[in-house]
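Deviations from the work plan: none for this task. Representative record:
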Amino acid sequence: MEDLSDDQLVSAFKALGHPTRLAILGWLKDGNSFPPQDRPADEVGVCLKHIQARANVSQSTASQFMATLQRADLVICTRIGQFSHYRRNERTIAKLGEAIGGDI
Amino acid sequence: MEDLSDDQLVSAFKALGHPTRLAILGWLKDGNSFPPQDRPADEVGVCLKHIQARANVSQSTASQFMATLQRADLVICTRIGQFSHYRRNERTIAKLGEAIGGDI
DNA sequence: GTGTCAAATCGTGATATCGCGATGTCACGA
DNA sequence: TCGTGACATCGCGATATCACGATTTGACAC
């Protein structure tokens, strides 16, 4: 399993260095805590509008937040029709945890 | 052992979200890789000027970087006379590693 | 097609970070 | 006491991030 590069580490830390983005990643651990949706959250992820509602930010801000998390490879986006669903990328998150104490 | 608060997590991630600061924390794992000093690095930490030299930044920038890491509780400063020595705070770093995958 | 809703992108002012030189503060030695 | 060296802080312009409303794109229903 490939390790994270320094650039990947920095962008992941930057993404987590914001209280709302950090909270969102925590919320996504339990996708079923969000309102129900056509496709279950633990399969495809949580719909953006539900994330937006809980974070209490505008649509554009919510979209930006998720784009930042996605660029850092911390979440995976699954688009179904008009809906974007986001779920955690446990692979990257685990590698990040290993990096701390290892490389860092 | 007390866990890190959300604010502490955010400020730690912010501090690590910069390539130079991230590199510095890695360098401090081996204090003896720096030039020799009166008091050994693995006891009191590395003198600021050595960090500055390796990071190749101005004195004020180096001081700011270390202040940021210190505010995030990622390093500990030991002042001896005129010299500020910095070493890793393994306690916080370990707690940060545990937080990922746990809270996060 | 037309309208509508979801989401991404654009454009923005406000705010924060970056990195530096200049200045201030403190410890030491002559 | 005066100078010097080490470090922190201040003040600054440059740049990036933040959060939003407005606009655009794309998917769907009719």
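The interface with chain A takes residues 6-7, 9-11, 13-19, 22-23, 25-26, 93-94, 96-97, 100-101, 103-104 of chain B (CB under 8 Å).
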